[in-house]
């Protein structure tokens, strides 16, 4: 994905570039869903069907974002839609949402603060 080539809002492009920096260039794919809307983008996981996120800036204050998270097996206890997010908070959410659970940094079997060798 080349965020610079997209006809998207500057804030959306910035988030996509930073997300690639965090997760790598192939961690997410762009969906064609809402591809014609400059203030929104739909991302999906190339390896986990049903895992995705719809990011948008429309209806948000300047510099704020909204996101709808999609899960392969939705859980009503997990909020699927969050608005009024800063770019930093959105990136943190997307990093956790799309990160590989096998990543030792995110390994739930590790105790908090446990050193990774």
Question: What characteristics describe this protein?
Answer:
117 residues; alpha+beta; five-stranded antiparallel β-sheet; 5 strands
- Write down the Rg: 15 Å
Order of helices and strands: HEEEEEH
Percent range for helical residues? Answer: 10-25%
For the biggest sheet, the summary is:
5 strands, antiparallel
Q: Find the count of extended strands (DSSP E, 2+ residues).
A: 5
How big a fraction of the residues is strand? 15-25%
Distance between the termini: 32 Å
- Annotation field: number of helices: 2
Are there runs of 5+ residues with pLDDT below 50, and where?
A: 104-108, 110-117
Strand order of the largest sheet: 1-2-3-4-5
Shape type: globular
Number of domains: 1
What would the average pLDDT be, to the nearest integer?
A: 84
Class derived from helix and strand content: alpha+beta
Written description of the protein model:
- The protein is α+β, with helices and mostly antiparallel strands and 117 residues long.
- The protein has one domain (3-99).
- It is built from 2 helices and 5 strands; from the N terminus they run H-E-E-E-E-E-H.
- The protein has helices spanning 10-23, 87-98, and strands at residues 29-30, 40-44, 52-56, 65-70, 81-85.
Structure summary:
This protein has 117 residues and is an alpha+beta fold.
Helix and strand arrangement:
Elements: H1 10-23, E1 29-30, E2 40-44, E3 52-56, E4 65-70, E5 81-85, H2 87-98
Antiparallel strand pairs: 1-2, 2-3, 3-4, 4-5
Helix pairs in contact: 1-2
């Amino acid at each position: 994905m080349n965020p610079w080539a997209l006809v998207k809002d500057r804030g959306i492009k910035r988030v996509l570039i930073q997300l690639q920096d965090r997760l790598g260039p192939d961690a997410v794919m762009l969906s064609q869903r809402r591809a014609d809307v400059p203030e929104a983008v739909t991302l999906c996981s190339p390896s986990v069907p049903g895992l995705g996120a719809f990011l948008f800036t429309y209806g948000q204050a300047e510099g704020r974002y909204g996101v709808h998270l999609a899960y392969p097996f939705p859980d009503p206890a997990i909020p699927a839609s969050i608005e009024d997010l800063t770019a930093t908070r959105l990136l943190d959410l997307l990093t956790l949402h799309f990160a590989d659970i096998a990543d030792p940094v995110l390994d739930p079997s590790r105790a908090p603060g446990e050193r990774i060798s």
